[in-house]
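Work through this:
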Amino acid sequence: MLEQRYRWKNKHLRDHVSVLDGKLSPTLLLKNARYLNQAFRKWMTANIWIYDDRIIYVGEKLPENIRQCEIMECEDLLLVPGYIEPHAHPFQLYNPHSFASYASHFGTTTLINDNMVLALQLDKKKAFSLLGELRNLPTTMYWWCRFDAQTEIQNEEIIFSHSNVKSWLEHDAVLQGGELTGWPKLLAGDDLMLHWMQEAKRMRKKIEGHFPGASEKTLAKLMLLGADCDHESMTGKEVYDRLMQGYTVSLRYSSIRPDLPVLLDEMHKLGIDYYDQIIFTTDGSSSSFYEQGMIDHMIRIAIEKDVPVIDAYNMGTINIARYYNINHLHGSIATGRVANINFLTSETNPTPVSVLAKGKWVKKDGKAVDTTQPISWEDKGFEPLSIDWDLSSNDLQFSMPFGIKMENAVITKPYSISTDISSDRLAYSNDESFFMLIDKNGQWRINTILKGFANRVDGLASSFSNTGDIILIGKSKSDIMIAFKRMKELGGGIIISENAEVVQEIPLKLKGVMSDQKVEILIEQEKQLLGYLRERGYQFADPIYSLLFFSSTHLPYIRMTQRGMYDVMNKTVLFPTIMR
């Protein structure tokens, strides 16, 4: 671990000084570069020396020794720091490796990542081994430390034990605790969670909230208990309330909450025109949402909404770095910083034509440069999902008195079942489907009816879920079994069967929860799936998030969990899971 403690070893630091002394040549010289200088809040012109992954000098001077130096004239370009995504969920079908590569092509060269999937799917040793390997990517990766599972799971006290959480908090790559999806428990007196927050504070790390709809009083209480930032503002007034209580506020633009344009309009009407405590996040959107870009697209929207240009860039760079106390490494183009630099054609077009990440070209003259080495996922514990049991007709028995109704992509309510659900197929004339969550190890199941998902989907099987357990949805029991069988053959995925034939599939060969394909391939697969589902009655924003959040108890009102059908507001298991 000591090798991980320092960004550069003593020898590296001596080499960096030797470049200034002319004893070593820079590896890259950016001449006559007009760049954004955050210290002066101005566009300035300088020569920028880079050695390996670090900016060695920014100023008027040129190096004496250029024997091993690439020289780039920058007169027709504008340079800004690499963008930072402070709230990434790098497991939304894509994986951290593929997501980092894709993000860097849009200039987002630093990611601060959710550790949920690693905590649920891997033991601590394998998870930390993966973190170590991901450090070798051109993209810089930092992490969170979750305090709860965001759902009701079996053995939560083991997975989120004090020992495990403390080890994550102590890891050098972890910058924050949270996000606090379990904050109601915190307010109700969960002193273990409060202790972990205290530990994070002792280590000078941040606490990320998750407070949708929280009142002013609740926000104040959570600030007193240690929260620092929240990304759940859905109106300008909620941004205002959070700023009033001392929060840093993440403005969100995601596949299920594309709020940024409205937030900025409403903020401006309220007179909010100071942006130093405001940052951007795309909050783990689906692959297809990222086709338009990432933090670069948020900066573009902000500029279009009359945010001053420099403030717009700062919300995606230096504001985030200062908040996390990593501004000595990230967020600006200055001596000593990591060489993450975006090259733009104009101030109002934040999508870069060229990108440096840790001093390496990951995009040059509009073309992606692939410099990453593949990861042996199986060695890291992400082998294909192995299912050594079969789904039987006995599993597909539905007799629940009430079902689950979708209000939108992620909010679900109970409803009384009035149709006949005793047959093997439900009619296309309504939007009710058989719905089942079944243990990936085949130990238990919970069955009900789902209303509002679609009216003409025969059989869908998904190993992508909050916990990696298996979701089954459909009008036809036989097609549900066909989709499940195909998912089993693939080692995980999202599969749809229609009229006894597989018509859609997204293989997820990494533990059944992630794809091993590039994001560009996933985008096309997702678009095909979404198009198919829309034709068959899915009317909400994002089916990937619907699948993910069916088990997520941080949202109201009723959820399917490992413990059974769960009433979120009353914190009660309504119907327990059935052992198979």
User: Anything to note?
Assistant: The longest strand covers residues 28-37. The mean pLDDT is 96.
